[in-house]
Please model this.
Amino acid sequence: MASGFPAYHTEHYSAGTAATPDLRKAARGTLAALSWSLREETHDRIIGSTSMNIRSWGEKVLINFLPDNSISVTSKCALPTQFLDWGKNKANVVKFMAEFSKHV
Model:
């Protein structure tokens, strides 16, 4: 359970040097497979979001594309004053990474 303003969780994925998968395409496919919205896309970042449900007001999912052929995935509460996430952000990132591995 993370705490902070807003609560968040981050993990990294590295494709290594042996493979050069299309991480951007895999990230888009992962968002679609999870039925999460793609809100914004730039050269080095995709911002997605989960929908509001009984457990949360929704979360922002930030996928940063790093120069070393890796990504950083952060889920943070959409409500900036939310102090506790009850494990929801970590669950989002774990879910994203599990699905992402199918698309790489």
